[in-house]
# Entry
Amino acid sequence: MEEETSWESLYIDHFGSKMTNFGMISEGNNGGEEFMVSLDSILPDDILERILSFLPIASILRAASVCKRWYDIVRSRRFLWAIKLPQKPWYFMFTSNEAAAGYAYDPILRKWYNFDLPCIEKSNWFISSSCGLVCFMDNDNRNNIFVCNPITRDWKELLEPPGMEFPDYTTLAISVDRKSYDYTVVIAKSKQVPDDFLHWNFSIHIYKSESRTWITSIKEVFIGWRGGDDSVICGGILYCLVHSTGSLRPDFRHGLVVYDLSAGSSHNSLMCTLIPVPCFLTCGRLMNLNERLVMVGGIAKYDRPDIIKGIGIWELHKKEWLEIARMPHKFFQGFGEFDDVFASSGTDDLIYIQSYGSTALLVFDMNQKQWKWSVKCPVTKRFPLQLFTGFCFEPRLEVAS
# Structure
């Protein structure tokens, strides 16, 4: 595991306006006298924009504090739309029993930044991200929903969603259109029918940023199944993890239901779309990695489903799961206080995995099929039962809520 620690403050809030002197170059003229030429003064705006657009996002933010001209360029709409080069997703780690402030990890520069989130005051919120935007939903009444760009700190509160009050289980998913930057937020709610453990009410509610309204697209009663707390949108399709109540199929614990968001209201049962998961899972998480549906989960022992023997990564091909990778034992042991509870989050081609009881962060590159520890996170564990969690997001300047 990496032992070094690299971190610094990065308060992007403000795209700092502090003026600093730009480096000067000197040349000799024919008379032997020396004069100073500012490289900044001879670069046209479009060339400077192009140069800045090649920098990592953290360097672009710092460039805004060089001088007023650079600040204006970074903040200009022209520059924001010019940034098309891909940025690797950052991972935000924070304590799960305190305020939602912590550290963000930049995998390009391999640095941690002191970071806090707008909108939310507590860490125990539902979180989903897509194309630079992050959606938050409170865990108490599950009616307070915000969409924000953590980099620019632009945010918006959404209308209160419809549907059943105080559901037993809820999932949250957001998907951003990469051309228009319009976004869709989907909530799936599940609640037990009173005094009937076999029957569970399940509903899907969709918010469109273009219309700024919610619609309820489906209501159904599941028999022997209940909704869970994880879902994702991939290719315009909503995928939700569901859990068996054990009464009908005790050997079949988890599954996936599929809903086409473009289909509108549907009278077909979601249970007809059920896809079994490849094994007994714990902490199963669904991810959209470049429009590929990927699942990360703890592989539970068959006779002891509360204990995991490893962590696997699978990709869904039609209705079949293909195992992409399994965490090597040396990394699995490296978490120290690792148990059956861990957080995982991914986007683009990176998957981040961390134990709730540790700040160790493991990164899996889907393209290179490579596991690697991040640089050590600067946060320290202050008491034995302190817990940590996190999520990843794309750092982008041009996307607004």
Q: What stands out?
A: Residues 12-32 have pLDDT under 50 and may be disordered. Residues 45-53 form the longest helix (9 residues).
